[in-house]
TrEMBL record:
Keywords associated with the record: 4Fe-4S, Iron, Iron-sulfur, Lyase, Metal-binding, Nucleotide-binding, S-adenosyl-L-methionine, tRNA processing
Record GO biological process: wybutosine biosynthetic process
Recorded metabolic or biological pathway in which this protein acts: tRNA modification; wybutosine-tRNA(Phe) biosynthesis
Protein name according to UniProt: tRNA 4-demethylwyosine synthase (AdoMet-dependent)
Species in which this protein is naturally found: Brassica oleracea var. oleracea
Length: 640
């Protein structure tokens, strides 16, 4: 019995030793292969490094090109690589790899870089690949994103770094993080590039701050006593999400309440170049082309046709250049800041209105002497009667929006406010305004996310609640639909389903305006619908409503159509979409409750849908630009 037990013990020991031996042989051969691979991939070899750009709008590609040129000027040759044309299996052959990557939808990479990022993630989790496959590769990552998206900020860049390290890669410098909205990304990127170049030349990642030790780990060489003396350093979350751009890696508190100004010098320069006049630290004003047009007697905008405003007496402004969306059709090319809440220094509403009026009238005065501008029209233009709070950004974000509206109404200036349907609580607390718009850029959750690219994770719930909030308003309310061909023009049924949620007085349906090429949008002229397309879409919506809404007006030049509620604004077969502005101001001044019916006015025949004028005021002079296009060659007819 004892002998049998002894034999079993010996056999078990032999089996264990055999398994251990086989494992050691396997491990030895694997390490030998990796060692051979590593020796082939020695950094001293003449292999050129590669810069991978993972880009959605072109920003990362431009930064990658800038880095390549900078490295070349320092005698270091790198190739620029589009990940779509690269085989990730070749990464173990690389000795130097730099990634410039953007973070897109929900913390994911753009489609062009999905395969490469997924390969790295899968390889790092696959035990068969091992943790030394990239041990011969030195790398660096610069991420591009927006802090306004919260936890997903630069998620792709951080993921790339983590996976590369997990596969044995040696990180040359810490992950660089550029915020496209803070106006400091160029400086941050340049500092990061300088660190990369220093490492490639044999120095440390950052002079006097971070060094790269032999095993690839970072050590902080900043003097402890120096850190203790920096009493004016604050946490980044306390300063509106600004990224550190100075070499000491900290941001100091501004004087006063410590809040930053919304408009940075870079944003101010960009908006000024586009013709905006900046008011204080977060507001702006710009003269509209229709204001100029009606000053010259060449026709007014669609609001003139639909609601009777005098376009030459309309001031376009906003008390908040910031927005909570990054819409694909944004005609400001995303030069304005973004944010989910007000986190900047705040200017006084009276000063904003005064500044807007002063700057607006200065721009009107510049029209003196322009052909067609009469002294009478110029004088009228110097006294604005309407204010379109829709210039750029999200005006309803401004905490003192009610006080600003009161200031305008006190000067008998009507208010047309547009909100992007992400702040329902702000809509509910708004005082009466002349007309309140909600942008309805899409009718489904998926398309709204794709078109508006909202910052809020609960954007759809906010959108629906914003529509519901309209029902609580007694004054005029409007859905503003922007049709983008190929994006939302097929959602007729879904749009109709939204009517019952907000029950707006009017529905404006407008074709998207193409504003030229932009790194932030992939829209082309192919996405712009014809006026006939907009009319057909509007008529189809009207039919679906079974008479609740009918097509009331059109402005062919703006490719815009208006639907109106028949039970409120069609009286005895006539439309009353226009506004009695003097009556409105009297009602506001009275302090008593009133509704949209109390200040409506009859729509002139030329503005009604189907009129031969197409919404063009016959008292204005229609002006058409001469087009010097070469005529198409006509086919030649040969007579035998």
């Amino acid at each position: 019995m004892a002998s049998s037990s002894s034999i079993h013990s010996r056999l078990a020991l032999i089996a264990l030793l055999s398994a251990t031996t086989f494992y050691c042989i396997h491990k030895y051969r694997r390490l030998k292969r990796l060692k051979n691979l590593s020796s082939k991939l020695n950094p001293s070899a003449a292999t050129r490094g590669k810069i991978f750009f993972i880009s959605q709008t072109g920003t990362c590609k431009a930064l990658a090109q800038r880095l390549r040129d900078l490295l070349a000027s320092n005698g270091v040759a790198f190739d620029l690589v589009d990940p779509r044309s690269y085989e990730p299996e070749d990464l173990p052959k690389e000795t130097l790899a730099i990634f410039v990557a953007s973070t897109w939808d929900g913390g994911k990479p753009p489609k062009d870089g999905e395969f490469l990022v997924d390969w790295l993630s899968e390889s790092a989790e696959d035990f068969r690949v091992g943790s030394l496959i990239l041990s011969g590769c030195r790398f660096a990552v610069f991420g591009v994103g927006s802090r306004a998206y919260g936890e997903s900020y630069n998620a792709v860049g951080k993921e790339l770094s983590r996976r590369m390290v997990g596969l044995g890669g040696v990180e040359m410098v810490p992950v660089g993080e550029g915020d496209v909205d803070d106006g400091e990304m160029d400086g941050v990127f340049q500092d990061w590039c300088d660190g990369v170049i220093r490492v490639l030349k044999g120095g440390s990642a950052r002079e006097g701050a971070v060094g790269l030790v032999s095993d690839g780990e970072y050590v902080d060489s900043t003097d402890d006593e120096e850190e203790e003396g920096n009493d004016d350093i604050v946490d980044l979350e306390d300063i509106a999400g600004k990224a550190p751009s100075r070499k000491n890696g900290v941001v100091k508190v501004a004087k006063g309440d410590g809040k930053k100004e919304m408009v940075t010098p870079l944003i101010r320069a960009s908006l000024t170049k586009q013709g905006y006049k900046i008011i204080g630290s977060h507001s702006g004003v710009k003269i509209c082309r229709w204001t100029k047009s009606q000053l010259r007697g060449r026709g007014g905008c669609y609001k003139h046709s639909f609601y009777g405003i005098e376009s030459h007496r309309c001031m376009e402004t906003t008390p908040s250049l910031a927005c909570a969306n990054k819409c694909v059709f944004c005609w400001r090319h995303h030069t304005n800041p973004v944010g989910k809440s007000w986190q900047w220094k705040m200017d006084d509403p009276k000063e904003i209105v005064k500044g807007a009026l002063d700057l607006h009238t200065k721009m009107i005065k510049q029209m003196k002497g322009v052909p067609g501008v009469t002294p009478e029209k110029l004088q009228e233009g110097l006294t604005p009667r309407h204010c379109a709070l829709s210039l750029v950004g999200e005006p309803i974000m401004y905490p003192e929006i009610n006080a600003l509206v009161d200031e305008l109404h006190g000067k008998r200036i009507s208010t047309f406010l547009v909100t992007n349907a992400q702040f329902p609580e702000k809509i509910l607390m708004m005082k009466p305004i002349t007309q309140l718009y909600v942008s309805v850029d899409a009718a489904t959750k998926e398309s709204l996310k794709a078109i508006d690219r909202p910052l809020f994770a609960d954007f759809w719930e906010r959108f629906i609640d914003s529509l519901k909030a309209l029902q609580e308003k007694q004054q005029r309310t409007v859905y503003r639909l922007t049709l983008v061909k190929g994006w939302n023009t097929e959602e007729l049924e879904a749009y109709f389903n939204l009517f019952s949620i907000g029950k707006p007085d009017f529905i404006e349906i407008k074709g998207v305006t193409y504003c030229g090429s932009s790194a932030t949008s992939k829209l082309t002229m192919e996405n712009v619908p014809w006026h006939a397309d907009v009319k057909a879409f509007s008529e189809a919506l009207s039919l679906k409503s079974n008479g609740e809404y009918e097509v009331a007006c059109e402005h062919a030049h703006s490719c815009c159509v208006l639907l109106g509620r028949t039970d409120k604004f069609k009286v005895n077969g006539k439309w009353f979409t226009w506004i009695d502005y003097e009556k409105f101001h009297d009602l506001v001044a009275s302090g008593e409750a009133f509704t949209s019916r109390d200040y409506m006015a009859e729509t002139p025949s030329w503005a009604v849908y189907g009129a031969e004028e197409g919404g063009f005021d016959p008292e204005q002079l229609r002006y058409k630009k001469e087009r010097h296009h070469h005529p198409k060659p006509q086919p030649q007819v040969v007579v035998a």
